[in-house]
Structures are given as structure tokens and as C-alpha cells.
Design brief:
The chain has 420 residues and is of the alpha/beta class. It has 20 helices and twelve strands. The chain is elongated, with a radius of gyration of 26 Å.
Length: 420
């Protein structure tokens, strides 16, 4: 299958068509990865659109910053799945799709008539990927889930409180949504590989709760890994309240002193080499780990004595990793990112210039080169229905009934694609 924009190969997933019913953060983060690598992602939206369209500046035109950050290289089609004509249209579109993604509970999808059984009946090769809150085999199966809930359910706020001495807090990023979206991206690619080998599609559930537990317990099951236990929970280095950016005379730095050599060189740099031989805490990584809070306090005290520039000059000479702490503002000015062109401005047809990030992978043979601006709601409804074999009369009938809706740019977009 050629890509929808009619261009040459646009990445390693060129030719893969995805029907994407996901909204908010988790699903769209997964499908943007697919889209960035060349898949033709068709974002199926309800008449009200993805709720993140309305959040933040330009939310009044349905193109807020959160939506802009997760929906490039996609096409938007509006289908009302509460109407039987809308369901029939989606089933017809599914005949030529490779992947179907949803973050709606499977039982609700079946009630709408677009569950795995219904879609696989029209396309046995379809990969049906459901991003859900919890495994459908347990008592939590029917629960709704959001990032905050999953963070709490997996103990992340408790870990933050224990390591900081503060009250439990959520991480100020949608870590569960975006982590599960990244995992779902890998699962979908693996399922496509299996389909290409067997010729048959399948349903795959990606539960947030179960996906995030290894993130947390992978570091913190620790002594409870063993049966019977050989210690308590939590890797001490990660739980140290002094594991943080260190204050210098004029800023903050990350300074990671980890190996035997790191510690020997650091103590030499601060004039305390004798501690390697005289202080039993420095004997090996095991003794250091047990005393890590005290040792990190030592590092903190020493780094406050010089400026960031002085430490950058001294520590790399001693092979000790150091990096100044960025703020959002300084991150946008980072010299490395500037040299690689990671941040770039693009012109959006509705909201004007926006700042985007590059696809963070580099390919020697099939580099991603497709760029579609983030779509307005329903911008590609007519175009996609036309590609799916609907006649002009059928499209007009669907539009008239409200089973599908076209955005203001729909006819323009359709015309541009047909003449490209």
C-alpha cells in the first residue's frame, strides 16, 4: 500500500495503515510514533473531537499545544459511532487497515459494534490493539484509568514521598500515559511482524497498570526479589534524599559518581584521597550503596564550594560525568540540540508557526521524511472515505445524516491530495 500523501517511501512503516480511535495522551503518543515512522494514521474522532484539542492557547480553534504535540503526521476523520451508518462506515474502512487502536474499554467497543470480533470478521489480518487501564482478566477490568490513577496504583507518589521526605506527589509529567504509549508502539510493531509471518491478525491488550509495575518494581523490588526475602524494598541509591541536582556557587549540576574509579578520582579532586583507604564506606559498590545518603551529602557539600564552570573544567578531566541542570528555557537553547536541528519551526495552516521536535531516531536506509501538519477536526473525512471506495453520493448521504462530519479544510485537503 502506498502512503496516503502520494509521495515516495516516507519511513520504515510506509504502507502500514492505522485506524486510530485513541484520545488524550497514551494512545496518541503511541500512534504519533507510528505516524512519524511513516504509517498512515487516520485519527477517528467523535463529533466533539479529542478533548485535548481544547486545552491551552489556540484551544478555541481545536489546536491547543498538547494536541499539537501528539498528533502530527495524522489525518482526522469524524465519525459518529452512535449512529449505525457511522459504524458501517468504520467497518468498511477497516477492510483495508493493518492496525486498529483504541483506549476505550473493550466491552464498550463491543457494544458500539466495533469490537475485535466485529472488525476481524471483515479483516482477519487486522491487528486490534487495545490500550486499557487494567488486564481484562482481573477484577479491575472494568475500571476507568487515568495517568494519576495509575501512578497512585503503582506506588509512584509513595516512592516520591519516601525519597524526598515530602508528602506523596504525582510526577509532573504524564509518565504512565507516555510510557505505556511507547510500550504499545513496540507491541504493535511486534504484532505486525507476527502477522506478516503467519498471515493472520490478532487482538492485543496493553494494560497500563501491569505495564507500569515493572517500571517501579524493576528498581524497587530489591531484597524482596528473593523468596524468602534477603532484604527490604527499594534500591538505596535511588531513594537517597541527596540523589538530586547538586548546588554549585552559581547553579545546579548533575554529577554522577558511581564506579570505584569515579569515587577515587572525585576524592582526589577534592583533596580527600585518603578516605579510599581509611573509610570502610568506600570499600566497594556494596558498602557505598549502604551508605549512599551520607556519601551523596559529602558530594553535595563539596560541589557548593566551586562554580559550575569550575566543576565542568575539573571533573571531565577526571572522567566523572557532569551536566548542568537545564530549565525549560535553557533546554531550548542547548548547543547539542541546536547542532542536530532537534527543535525546528514549522508553518501550520491554521495557527501559524509552531515549534516542533524532530523524530528522535536516525536511519541509514529508510529515514522518515513525511510531514503532515496536525489536522483540524474532520479535515480529512471526505478524502479518507473517497480512498476507502465510497462514492460521492454515499459520502454526501453520510454527511447529510451526521454519521460523518467534515471540517472546514476537508474539501481543500481532498483537492490538494488528488492533484499532488
Amino acid at each position: 500500500m502506498s502512503n496516503a500523501a502520494g509521495t515516495a517511501s516516507s519511513g520504515p512503516l510506509d504502507g502500514v495503515r492505522v485506524l486510530d480511535l485513541t484520545t488524550v495522551f497514551m494512545g496518541p503518543s503511541c500512534t504519533q510514533l507510528l505516524a512519524d515512522l511513516g504509517a498512515d494514521v487516520i485519527k477517528i474522532e467523535s463529533p466533539g473531537g479529542d478533548s485535548t484539542r481544547a486545552i491551552g492557547p489556540s484551544g478555541d480553534v481545536g489546536l491547543g499545544p498538547l494536541f499539537l504535540g501528539l498528533n502530527r503526521n495524522k489525518r482526522s476523520v469524524v465519525i459518529d459511532l452512535k449512529q449505525s451508518e457511522g459504524v458501517a462506515a468504520l467497518l468498511r474502512m477497516a477492510k483495508d487497515a493493518d492496525v486498529f487502536t483504541s483506549n476505550v474499554r473493550p466491552a464498550a467497543m463491543r457494544r458500539l459494534g466495533v469490537g475485535y470480533e466485529q472488525l476481524s470478521a471483515v479483516n482477519p489480518r487486522l491487528i486490534y490493539a487495545s490500550m486499557v487501564g487494567f488486564s481484562q482478566k482481573g477484577p479491575y477490568a472494568g475500571k476507568a484509568a487515568f495517568d494519576d490513577m495509575i501512578q497512585a496504583a503503582t506506588g509512584l507518589p509513595a516512592v516520591v514521598a519516601a525519597s524526598s521526605g515530602d508528602i506523596p506527589r504525582y510526577l509532573p509529567i504524564t509518565i504512565a500515559d507516555r510510557s505505556v504509549g511507547l510500550y504499545a508502539f513496540g507491541v504493535i510493531c511486534a504484532a505486525l511482524h507476527a502477522r506478516n509471518r503467519t498471515g493472520v491478525g490478532q487482538s492485543v491488550d496493553i494494560p497500563m497498570f501491569e505495564t507500569m509495575i515493572p517500571y517501579v518494581l524493576g528498581d524497587h523490588l530489591y531484597g524482596r526479589t528473593f523468596v524468602p526475602p534477603k532484604g527490604d524494598f527499594s534500591y538505596p541509591r535511588l531513594m537517597s534524599k541527596n540523589r538530586r541536582p547538586y548546588k554549585t556557587k552559581d547553579g545546579y549540576v548533575c554529577c554522577l559518581i558511581y564506579t570505584d574509579r569515579h569515587w577515587a578520582l572525585f576524592l582526589e579532586a577534592v583533596g580527600k584521597s585518603d578516605l579510599i583507604k581509611t573509610d570502610p564506606r568506600f570499600r566497594d559498590i556494596g558498602t557505598r550503596t549502604k551508605a549512599i545518603d551520607e556519601l551523596y551529602q559529602l558530594v553535595s557539600d563539596e560541589l557548593e564550594q566551586r562554580t559550575t564552570a569550575e566543576w565542568k573544567a575539573v571533573l571531565p578531566e577526571n572522567e566523572i560525568p557532569i551536566f548542568p541542570m537545564h530549565t525549560f528555557e535553557t533546554l531550548l537553547e542547548d548547543e547539542h540540540l541546536a547542532s542536530t536541528g532537534f527543535f525546528h519551526e514549522t508553518e501550520h495552516p491554521v495557527v501559524g508557526k509552531i515549534l516542533e521536535t524532530a523524530v528522535p531516531s536516525e536511519w541509514s536506509g529508510t529515514p522518515p521524511n513525511r510531514h503532515l501538519p496536525v489536522p483540524s477536526l474532520g479535515e480529512h473525512t471526505v478524502q479518507v472515505l473517497d480512498e476507502a471506495g465510497f462514492t460521492a453520493a454515499e459520502i454526501e448521504s453520510l454527511l447529510a445524516s451526521g454519521a460523518v462530519r467534515a471540517g472546514a479544510l476537508s474539501s481543500v485537503s481532498n483537492k490538494e491530495t488528488k492533484t499532488s
